């Protein structure tokens, strides 16, 4: 079976610390790296630490392969990364921000860690990105199914939440990400994938010449703390519009108030579902002109967060040994809207006992 122990010694020493002196022995063989590979040579690697996608290798128009996902070669680099970039991770229990780190369900207020200024971000100090997931199934070269049990009041969230993530790579160069979850108490759930892309190849400069289309006529504007105001803003005719393919560099330095708040793009777009809410529909397209590499994103989710790597600044060195520059990678995070538990006009993210959370996103790679 094509799996490799992932840098176990560093994890071992961090996990047990001084327990070595007491004679205790603990498993340091639990974190592994799994490889999915299809008939055309596209390769995806993922680890059960944080359900992180560490690598996505795809061809350009001439068949030249390159890794287009930012990340590291060693697990300790994911654990110790400054600025917590969430490279390749599954984030939750609630991806994105919750205002003032609190929400109310059935008259009870729940308090969460404020790890993003006055707000809660991506599940807190020990979100889904920083735990070891259980490998439920590994179908060599095809799919990897991972699960995690987030216990009641873990990071302040109510309910024992059993969540699964399945990565499947097919011969059409599509990577499908399936999420499911159940709970024994009402709880907010908003899980997403936080891979940073650069279709020139990771570490190969910026993505500013990439062309982007977002299938969205509206977005959810934010305040200075990047919390949605509750309104919907029409983007047509503004720097926030990606209704047709256009170079990101043409808009990212616009003086629009929303871009000032985010230091670039860090916003949620409201996807045009055309009456197909909850079904798989087109969310985004990306094209890198030099290599010809392309990606389409389809999702069942109502929104997508375009994040333009605003906090990358050259301090982080990736797999190839090259630093990740400002604008060196971008994210397209399919999701429900930020702060939905506090925004009654937004689609609900509350999962009830007896219900099943289901979400799917497909990343389809090609070149032209």
From TrEMBL:
Identify the keywords attached in UniProt to this record, alphabetized. Carbohydrate metabolism, Cytoplasm, Isomerase, Phosphoprotein, Signal
InterPro entries with a match to the protein in the record: Aldose_1-epimerase, Aldose_1/G6P_1-epimerase, Gal_mutarotase_sf_dom, Galactose_mutarotase-like, GH-type_carb-bd
Report the active site residues: 194, 333
Answer yes or no on keyword Ubl conjugation: no
Tell me where it resides.
Answer: Cytoplasm
Membrane-spanning ranges: none
Family designation: Belongs to the aldose epimerase family.
Q: How does it assemble?
A: Monomer.
Know the name of this protein? Aldose 1-epimerase
Source organism of this protein record: Mariniblastus fucicola
